[in-house]
């Protein structure tokens, strides 16, 4: 192995380690440089800022999903507080008539405290989503939560709000093709992604080629037999395969959507929309942006150099670059 991949892998592991260090976050939250780095991937700390980012995407023909950043909570009060913020978010999305739904993490809504609490809080969010004809996506966290999340989804939430709630499946996991079949059997809405968490080889493919191959297999099944899947990737090879498959199988563009992260490959997002495909962008916001930023940097450590360089340039020239200019392979 050449030194490049070794250094990248060390950087990736260090960034994932740092993403879990609350004390470091407390230190850097007040740091202007780190906050500007975060603004490449995070739409701000308030509901108003997040909705403005969604409105801007809508003006470009792109749908949005808003995610209030925050990971596991350890008190019922915090879980209920997060739930209340989601209700306010849905109210604001509705009032502003945005083409936008919401994404939630069950651990931020009390899953680590008790399933009953979590179901209670999510049910309130789903009831509000029903009132507004909106939709709630349950993000998928690390593999220790997969079964619990799917159980809660199927037994407690989807059974009561089938049109309002969907799940995420990760092609990094060995179990995912089975989960795809189960979701297809239920006619449940699935967002397919590769998976952002470091997982043991026992449950996940260590080799990226297997993750990518499984993504394509799952994608084909969801596109042909699933119910309005979200294909969440920036991988151009896979996106081109989705387009080819849709054309070859006569699957209309309204039957699925591409999904990408805020600040990543805006060029590709706009190109897809121009070509008549549906695109939704996942917009994270809130005060708890640090672990999310670290995971995005771990995915592509070259972003650190890119962002540092562009922030220094902005400081020197007083210019601002939009998140759309975040890098991708081959562009910089
Ligand atoms: P891959 O990592 O192979 O990257 C392909 C190409 O995309 C790269 O070569 C590069 O050009 C570009 N790229 C990828 N990441 C980039 C970055 N950070 N900066 C710049 N360029 C980048 N995960 C999870 O575990 N649970 C979840 O619920 C979700 N939800 C989710 C929603 C949406 C809408 C998206 C797009 C992604 C997620 N993810 C997720 C994250 C997902 O699992 C994965 O970690 C990232 O999307 C990166 O994987 P790609 O599929 O883009 O491919």
Topology diagram in text:
Blueprint: H1 3-19, H2 22-28, H3 32-38, H4 47-59, E1 63-68, H5 76-95, E2 100-104, H6 115-131, E3 136-138, H7 146-158, E4 165-170, H8 176-186, E5 189-193, H9 208-225, E6 230-232, H10 236-249, E7 257-261, H11 266-274, E8 279-285, H12 290-299, H13 302-317
Parallel strand pairs: 1-2, 1-8, 2-3, 3-4, 4-5, 5-6, 6-7, 7-8
The structure holds dihydroflavine-adenine dinucleotide.
Please, could you describe this protein's structure?
With 332 residues, this protein is α/β, with parallel strands linked by helices. It is 52% helix and 12% strand. It contains 13 helices and eight strands. An eight-stranded parallel barrel has the order 1-2-3-4-5-6-7-8, surrounded by seven helices. Helix 9 runs parallel beside helix 10 (236-249). It is globular. It starts with a helix and ends in a 15-residue tail after the last helix.
The shape, in one word, is globular
Strands side by side in the biggest sheet: 1-2-3-4-5-6-7-8
Number of strands: 8
Q: Mean of the pLDDT scores?
A: 88
Biggest sheet layout? 8 strands, parallel, barrel
Structural class, judged by helices and strands? alpha/beta
